[in-house]
Design goal:
This protein is an alpha/beta fold and 123 residues long. 44% of the residues lie in helices and 13% in strands. The protein has a single domain, classed as Oxidized Rhodanese, domain 1, CATH 3.40.250. Strands 1-5-4-2-3 form a five-stranded parallel β-sheet. The protein is globular and about 35 Å long. The two termini are 19 Å apart. This is Thiosulfate sulfurtransferase. Pfam families: Rhodanese (PF00581).
Amino acid sequence: MSTIGPERLEDRLSSAESPYVIDIRPREAYQRDHIEGSHNVPVYDDLRGGDEAAFREALSDVPAERTVVTVCKAGIVARTATTILEDEGYDAVTLAGGQRRWNGYQNGSLGYRLRSALGGLLP
């Protein structure tokens, strides 16, 4: 399973081949902060609990010709979403570190810079 870091995602979002970003966090979390242009498919709790039906049902809106990036809070539950997308034939990747890492990157946080400098040795 592939992942994408926030730097690369930012580059891809501004390109002609922009990926389709699915944020699987609950609606309240998505409303607080999210990646601009992302689509909220709030099935985080369903996937964490093992219920894939709601997520699979939402896939009908996902364009098959675009790479799909899945986002959750920290990048863990989104892996399940990525696996489901791959099983359905989509080119899908997970945002490494999830929304937390994206926010750290966007805000230039010290924690993000340290993790990047240490090559991901820190959680």
